[in-house]
Amino acid sequence: MNPATLSVPSSTHEVLNQAPALRDYNLFSSDPALSHALERENAAWARSRLEELGRLMGTEELIRAGFLANENPPVLHTHDRFGHRIDEVEFHPAWHDLMRHSIAHGLHNLAWTEQKPGGHVARAALMFLASENEAGHTCPVSMTYSSVPALRKQPELASEWEPYIRQSIYDPRFRPVHEKNGALIGMAMTEKQGGSDVRANTTTAEPVDGGRARGEYRITGHKWFCSAPMCDAFLVLAQAPGGLTCFLLPRWTPDGERNRFHIQRLKDKLGNRSNASSEIEFAGAWARRIGEEGRGVPTIIEMVQHTRLDCVIGASALMRQALAQAIHHARHRKAFGRFLIDQPLMRNVLADLSLESEAATMLMMRLARAFDGRDTDEHEHGLARLATAVAKYWICKRTPQFVNEAQECLGGNGFVEECVLPRLYREAPLNSIWEGSGNVICLDILRAITKDPASLEAVLAEIRQARGSDRRFDAFVGPLETELAGSRDEVHGRRLAEHLALALQASLLIRNSDSQIADAFCGSRLNGESGRTFGTLHTPIDPEAAFPIA
Ligand SMILES: Cc1cc2nc3c(=O)[nH]c(=O)nc-3n(C[C@H](O)[C@H](O)[C@H](O)COP(=O)(O)OP(=O)(O)OC[C@H]3O[C@@H](n4cnc5c(N)ncnc54)[C@H](O)[C@@H]3O)c2cc1C
């Protein structure tokens, strides 16, 4: 039949009542909680950088890059066409775009290059913005930032590698580092038989020529998880003659040969799909020791402490992006004759989510300030030690439930892949699993309290600063202190972690936020006035204040 003869209506209906896409907005200037925290935690000097990155990460182009990088996951090439091992991973150009912007803004090095106070705070806020856009690419960025304090345990290695880390140039070429303009560092600890329990590592390290003068070793064994395998070098744990030891293992040897770092396969993951996470084998790979033999855990823990801070940042950012999407949708979508944002029940859900998000952002930024002061101030040192674990446990645990609730605010649209929320939802559990899963973090909290009582004193001193301002707060903190003074049984680890986190968040909100927000937090989180789902505040706050753009 001739199509021209068909009488087809040009459309069946008008598209109505769909929210416009949230794009071309500034992620930083639309976030009052982040902006206030930046001032308060000593990094106001970084405002223009944040405005710039906030604008970039909210552009349609970079939002699209986030989608593309996840829809086109990395591809492993183990061999070239002639059968030689190459062990290279190919990424979509969108991944490289995201990396280029994040590295150019110093997300991997700002805290180490900036001389002004507030370097870790400024960097945390920048990292937060990039994570809101796309979480996967922040993995190598985070590991590079975190590697520096561990590398510094071996000054000659730090002096070789830090100059490359300090460059804010993303150089994805797979070449020996001295031919490159910048370097990225990863981490490989987890093995098949044990991740949390790294002492069970079976990978071995043999000193080269039996001599230990330059700290050169040959590493043989495997790692069950090794993310971002295209990094230039990795901090690796292996069993040396003197016990579990930390090494720097580059992808190229000093002779300009590919190191014997073989990528077996890439993991097929629930989320974090833009990022390559691999299984690898070391077939006598060349590496150099960091720190003393047998001191592997205390050495690499310096790195882990910083990646845990980044888990807090990453989880808080997922919450924030989910909240922005939910408020935006509710402002534009009508049901039963009224905008969703004006429906009392929806308002309560959004209010409760905004409360949770603000509490997370505030704790994350306070924690980042503790990292700024931890080498020079005892209080900050103690806070960084214990509050990192407390915040990681609680904020990461809250994220999946939070993102799901935000998704529900969009109804069916929140479940469809064209919207960012399904990606946020798949990403949400990850920060809780890696860098110490929930129980392991709780055991770390108990260890810190027992072995480093100054860290508990620091956290309690921080909490106590709000004492006398709210009866519910006082009634919550009193028994918590009594409990902390008594038995620290493992079985109660999660309850203790949760209570410490809530007390810290409440103290920060009481001291620094609007009194209605602090009141709603204490009423809902500390004395059980509210229910177990979001949206059960006794007196809802104004959710729109959290995202004041039309
Ligand atoms: C996407 C992704 C990327 C990753 N990338 C890397 C990477 O780049 N480098 C790297 O080294 N690792 C990486 N990991 C590994 C990750 O850090 C580990 O999976 C994690 O530390 C947990 O170790 P495991 O999987 O061996 O679990 P296990 O250690 O077996 O733990 C399983 C469960 O038991 C709990 N548990 C353990 N001990 C105790 C105890 N004493 N009491 C009570 N409960 C306990 C844990 O909390 C956890 O819930 C990655 C993981 C994922 C998912």
Describe the structure.
By secondary structure, the protein is of the alpha+beta class. The chain folds into three domains: 32-165, no CATH class; 184-295, Beta Barrel (Butyryl-CoA Dehydrogenase, subunit A, domain 2), CATH 2.40.110; 299-546, Butyryl-CoA Dehydrogenase, subunit A, domain 3 (Up-down Bundle), CATH 1.20.140. Helix content is 49%, strand content 13%. It is built from 18 helices and eleven strands. The strands form three sheets. Strands 3, 4, 5, 6, 7, 8 and 9 form a seven-stranded mixed sheet that branches. The chain has a two-stranded antiparallel ribbon with strand order 1-2. The protein has a two-stranded antiparallel ribbon with strand order 10-11. A hairpin with an 8-residue loop joins β4 (204-207) and β5. α11 (378-409) packs across α12 (421-427). The protein is globular. The mean pLDDT is 96. The structure holds flavin-adenine dinucleotide. The site of flavin-adenine dinucleotide has 24 residues, from β3, β5, α13 and α14.
Briefly characterize the structure:
The chain has helices at residues 32-40, 47-57, 60-71, 93-104, 110-113, 119-133, 138-151, 155-165, 296-332, 344-373, 378-409, 421-427, 430-433, 438-451, 453-464, 471-485, 493-512, 515-526, and strands spanning 75-79, 85-90, 185-188, 204-207, 216-227, 233-240, 243-250, 261-266, 277-290, 334-335, 338-339. The protein is α+β, with helices and mostly antiparallel strands. The strands form three sheets. Strands 3, 4, 5, 6, 7, 8 and 9 form a seven-stranded mixed sheet that branches. A two-stranded antiparallel sheet has the order 1-2.
